[in-house]
């Protein structure tokens, strides 16, 4: 039983009092000294009942403290006492309520923002007095004072006992699932007041449902944009009414807009070089998007790169010839799209070959970029180089492009893996058909200087760092 060292009768002229942020009973009348005394005693009562409630619910710290109540301007605590019991009277129950702005799901799963929604925040009747109707008495007093109805109350993380209490006394059983700790019951959103944006208990903010989009200020909407509810939702919301406005409505449906996310989700994203390659490639080839004509500058870069690579097709250079079909950057469509098994690029870390077998270094190497970024060969590139092109991570541009996975590519790892050594190889089982296309032994093992292998390819070992 909760008794105190002081007499509670002056604080409880009636069995149930309510206390707000002033920490004074609503019935309190007194001078300044009495006011300070009452505040101190009331703080002690609230803290002790709040602690008992927390223990009863198995919480690590109390939901209700005098300090919290003092700091809040929209919370009220109802205290139930038996002033005649014991020497100084007994405090037997506590009910804390308040209003909250909540994002809630309705029965259809749509997000709604409820402002000043009535909430049951803490409820406790001393163990020795439970199941004696005191809880109901306290709750009924609160409903009357606040002019709330049980159905319109959201309940903050209710215990099993409270769920049973609400079920027994108010028939509240069927809940509406929520993403937060609050529990609502079916009917929470029902009534004329809610549907036109106002309710006696709580206030639904003027969230719109325009053009079939459910637009709220909820985190979901801000992150992912408005939810398109479809025409069915519009039919529902219009109640089946079809008048001259329906044409206008259908035209509005066309204007589906998306709320731009803001905050860090709205921040410009770093360009994805792989996406640039893919989109620019399909756009230029005319195979992917139908050639909208709206090309980004990065797309132009890629097209330019493709053009330059084309010029390098001569000779035994493998990358241009092999990469073009993969990247779809050749502007002119192939007359014969027969899916012949082309020499594929297989990159394996090979074992070092004897130097004597090393073919003559090619005189022309694919990427001008390889020359433009290496050592003494540094010179202005023939095209606009972005960070994606020239950054250390992307330095081996040709290799990066070549290893884009495709159905035509497989990785031959039969040979020993030496870190940092790249071999351009054939898929397993493929025979060399033409010396001009033989790249089986086109491997680089030793940097001959300037970051190039003695064949002139980029040596990954040279460029390796931990961040690569
Ligand atoms: C948002 C929150 O505050 S959640 C936390 C709620 N508080 C707690 O769980 C603390 C411990 N419990 C209590 O303090 C009380 O049981 C209260 C406040 C929930 C209800 O107060 P009571 O004075 O017992 O309520 P009252 O006597 O008016 O109603 C009794 C009904 O409450 C429910 N109830 C009360 N105690 C229990 C219990 N131990 N087990 C199951 N149901 C219970 C039952 O429906 C009971 O009806 P029944 O006896 O016919 O089964």
From TrEMBL:
Compositional bias annotation for Acidic residues: 328-345
Superkingdom of origin organism: Eukaryota
Binding of acetyl-CoA, residues: 123-136, 159-168
Compositional bias ranges of the Gly residues kind: 283-293
Catalytic activity: L-lysyl-[alpha-tubulin] + acetyl-CoA = N(6)-acetyl-L-lysyl-[alpha-tubulin] + CoA + H(+)
Feature: compositional bias, Basic and acidic residues: 232-244, 366-379
Annotated site (Crucial for catalytic activity): 57
Record's keyword terms, sorted: Acyltransferase, Transferase
Signal peptide: none
Transferase among keywords: yes
A GO term for molecular function: tubulin N-acetyltransferase activity
GO CC terms, sorted: microtubule
Pro residues bias (residue ranges): 349-364
GO biological process, one term: regulation of microtubule cytoskeleton organization
Family to which this protein belongs: Belongs to the acetyltransferase ATAT1 family.
Biological function: Specifically acetylates 'Lys-40' in alpha-tubulin on the lumenal side of microtubules. Promotes microtubule destabilization and accelerates microtubule dynamics; this activity may be independent of acetylation activity. Acetylates alpha-tubulin with a slow enzymatic rate, due to a catalytic site that is not optimized for acetyl transfer. Enters the microtubule through each end and diffuses quickly throughout the lumen of microtubules.
Protein name: Alpha-tubulin N-acetyltransferase
Species per Swiss-Prot/TrEMBL record: Drosophila rubida
């Amino acid at each position: 039983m909760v008794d105190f060292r002081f007499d509670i009768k002056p604080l409880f002229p009636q069995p149930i009092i309510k206390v707000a942020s002033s920490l004074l009973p609503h019935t309190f009348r007194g001078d300044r000294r009495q006011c300070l005394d009452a505040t101190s005693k009331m703080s002690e009562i609230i803290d002790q009942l709040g602690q008992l409630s927390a223990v009863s619910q198995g919480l690590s710290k109390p939901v209700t403290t005098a300090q919290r109540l003092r700091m809040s301007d929209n919370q009220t605590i109802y205290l139930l006492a038996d002033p005649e019991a014991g020497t100084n009277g007994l405090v037997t129950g506590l009910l804390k309520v308040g209003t909250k702005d909540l994002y809630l799901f309705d029965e259809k799963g749509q997000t709604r923002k409820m402002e000043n929604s009535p909430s049951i925040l803490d409820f406790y009747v001393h163990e020795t007095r439970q199941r004696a109707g005191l809880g109901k008495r306290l709750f009924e007093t609160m409903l009357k004072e606040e002019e709330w109805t049980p159905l319109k109350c959201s309940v903050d993380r209710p215990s099993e006992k409270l769920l049973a209490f609400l079920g027994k006394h108010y028939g509240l059983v069927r809940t509406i699932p929520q993403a937060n700790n609050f529990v609502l019951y079916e009917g929470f959103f029902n009534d004329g007041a809610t549907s036109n944006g106002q309710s006696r208990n709580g206030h639904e903010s003027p969230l719109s449902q325009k053009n079939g989009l459910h637009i709220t200020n909820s985190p979901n909407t801000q992150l992912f944009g408005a939810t398109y509810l479809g025409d069915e939702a519009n039919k529902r919301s219009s109640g089946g009414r079809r008048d001259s406005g329906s044409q206008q409505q259908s035209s509005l449906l066309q204007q589906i807009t998306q709320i731009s996310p803001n905050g860090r989700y709205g921040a410009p994203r770093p360009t994805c070089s792989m996406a640039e390659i893919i989109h620019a490639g399909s756009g230029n080839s005319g195979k992917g998007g139908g050639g909208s004509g709206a090309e980004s500058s990065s797309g132009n870069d890629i097209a330019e790169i493709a053009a330059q690579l084309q010029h390098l097709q001569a000779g035994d250079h493998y990358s241009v010839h092999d990469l073009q079909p993969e990247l779809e950057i050749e502007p002119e469509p192939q007359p014969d799209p027969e899916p012949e098994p082309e020499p594929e690029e297989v990159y394996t870390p090979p074992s070092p070959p004897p130097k004597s077998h090393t073919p003559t270094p090619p005189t022309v190497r694919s990427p001008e970029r390889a020359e433009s970024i290496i050592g003494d060969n540094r010179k202005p590139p023939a095209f606009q180089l972005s960070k994606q092109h020239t950054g250390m991570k992307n330095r081996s541009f040709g290799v990066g492009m070549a290893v884009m996975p495709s159905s035509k590519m497989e990785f031959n790892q039969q040979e020993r893996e030496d870190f940092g050594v790249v071999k351009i190889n054939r898929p397993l089982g493929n025979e060399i058909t033409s010396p001009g296309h033989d790249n089986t032994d086109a491997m680089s093992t030793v940097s001959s200087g300037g970051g190039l292998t003695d064949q002139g390819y980029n040596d990954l070992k040279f460029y390796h760092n931990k961040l690569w």
